[in-house]
Specification:
mainly alpha; 10 helices; globular; disordered N terminus
Length: 176
């Protein structure tokens, strides 16, 4: 039996209830607002529905990737490719994954957490997150609005700052 399944079974019931505390509080607040100011409350409900609509596909993709990751990739695989010893290839892999990733960043957090638990280094996780600012698909539009020189310099410095950020995170994060 895996250690995380043992820990999940041993969690007290109140910790599972605590997961629902925030959504329950938000629901109560919305119900109160619907009674007090229904027109303004509906604006908030529509905004929340819009955020959920935008986030559902990336969240499903991230959870699907987590399913595949947990089914087929062992901690040894993750440690080998995104651990501290992979060198320039690991840096390139985590940067490329960040560049091609789509959707809101918070949708990637559960997936990245599972990678971290399997042995990915904090450097590579920070490198992934920081490289999300570089989007080749948006480069033509950026060139159209800002010119090629601005776009090139911006993209290069985004990548350099991503590497600096990842290095600082890697050096300052507590050792696991």
């Amino acid at each position: 039996m895996r250690m995380d399944s043992i820990q999940a079974k041993s969690k007290p019931v109140h910790s599972h209830l605590r997961l629902w505390l925030f959504p329950a509080i938000v629901l109560v607040i919305y119900l109160i607002l619907l009674a007090v100011a229904p027109d303004r409350a509906w604006i908030g409900v529509k905004a929340a529905a819009n955020v959920i609509r935008q986030a559902i596909l990336p969240l499903c993709l991230a959870f699907g990737m987590m399913l595949v990751l947990n089914r087929f990739i062992t901690p040894d695989h993750v440690s080998r490719f995104l651990g501290g010893g992979m060198g320039i290839i690991g840096i390139f892999l985590s940067a490329a994954a960040g560049v091609i990733s789509m959707g809101p960043v918070f949708a990637w957090y559960p997936f990245l957490e599972s990678l971290r638990k399997k042995g990915a280094s904090d450097f590579h996780l920070a490198n992934f997150l920081s490289h999300r600012a570089v989007k080749p698909a948006l480069l033509p539009m950026m060139i159209l609005y800002f010119g090629w020189r601005f776009s090139l310099v911006f993209t290069i410095f985004c990548s350099l700052s991503a590497l600096i950020t990842a290095t600082v995170v890697g050096l300052t994060a507590p050792k696991r």
